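Me: I keep going back and forth on a fold encoding question. No explanation is needed for now; the record alone will do.

Assistant:
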Amino acid sequence: MNFEDIILHKDNSIKAKTLRAFLIPFSWLYIFVHFLFFIPYKLGIRKKHKAHIPVICVGNITMGGTGKTPFVITLSNILKDFGYKPVIISRGYGRKSTENMVFCPKDSLLAEDTGDEPYLLSKATDLSIIIGKNRIKSIQMSQDLDCNIIILDDGMQYWQLHKDIEIAIASAQKPFGTGRVIPAGDLREPKKGLKRCQFIVLTDNNPIGKETIEKVQDYCQNSFVHEGITKPLNITYKEKNYDLDFLKGKKVIGICGIGNPERFKRTLSDLGADTLEFITYPDHHNYMEEDINLIKEKAKECDFVVTTAKDRVKMPLDLNVAVVNIYTQIDEDFKEKLKIKLKENLITK
């Protein structure tokens, strides 16, 4: 039995259902501890840290795989178009160091030093990333940078910090996850956590049905619900960018270590690739020598080994793999409403 399949409710065997039932009391305990920590901040008994500049939080209520990273890239570009100077704060999962640090686009560090997501975000946005588990310390470090707005990546459950705007990213396939909190399900907090967000962006590879948007809007009546389509931008191979038909009809082997590998698998299919094999690793997987050797062997069996940009940054530069670069397409209405919210919060450039 795969434990991830069990908590994501993909495995519906009798054994899996029995184990989930056994885990329900632990989910209740998780909810109790969650409220024990959250309520003092909600009631104002404990004070939240307020940053010197506005904070836009981008997060989710489920365990990964919602398309948050490409959305943060899109949001960064929107804010720059508005005239702001953003800085991104990220936890930096999977990196060697535990110290808070500033990573600039021109720094000669590797993904193993920064974590895969901060590395990718910096290269894709040309922005500085402040990395560290202690987000309040990261906020303080931002005072030394030329920025006037903060994007807090994956910070919805960081109760200690005041956020001016919260944006939740949810999969259109399962906006409310499995409906149960961990460990019996995939929710980081009860689904009503979505209601405190000003914006909810539903993501998918394809246009999202009106029924899904209305279902979330009915539940979160005070939030703006928008469609975010995760689309391929181009294909990179041997440091050159190619059009999206590059993989059409080609025999490929897909490899990834991301939160929602099925979405990447669908992307390969949408691009017309003939996927001979699809190999998955855990999210934020660091590629070791045996993994690289496997990729080299697999490359002999197909036209291309294909991976994601998030995985590619953790592989040797001389490894010949094709990369599908993606972005989030967001509607103009979102941009207009965001601009209004920025003004309402007295967020000035």
The longest strand covers residues 224-237.
